[in-house]
Amino acid sequence: MTSDEPRGRQATLPEFETTFATSEAIWREAYWGDMRVGYETYLADFDDAPLLKRLPNGRCQCPHWGYLLAGRMTVRYADHEEVVEAGSVYYMAPDHSIEVDAGTVLIEFSPLAEWEELTAAAEGEMASAEADAG
Length: 134
Prior knowledge:
This protein has one domain: Sandwich (Jelly Rolls), CATH 2.60.120.10. The chain is 16% helix and 41% strand. The chain is built from 1 helix and 10 strands; from the N terminus they run E-E-E-E-E-E-E-E-E-E-H. A 6-stranded antiparallel sheet has the order 1-2-3-10-5-8. Strands 4-9-6-7 form a 4-stranded antiparallel sheet, with no helix packed on it. The model has no long low-confidence stretch (mean pLDDT 91).
């Protein structure tokens, strides 16, 4: 490591930007180089499957690494499910969807390029749903 390379990053919750806030969830984010760091709080049960319809196989193609501070999350793959409980460190391989229980709080790290593809697809699906409802 040369002296001009970053040695590490840290942030406190107030330094994270709130990028998504609904009655279901609050997402706070920071961007560190090519990584997205998320601090996510789920206020209600949340299933991301309806938001993933535009993605290959209708599942998230972005890998995620994280720590579940509270609650429970079920990660669904084509051939199995994995349940992540509070206090667990996890890895979600590409080609998954999730169901998150109300009260779940997690910290998650995702590669920024894949994260941006995921959010673009989800935002497109939300816009279509709102147009259909209106």
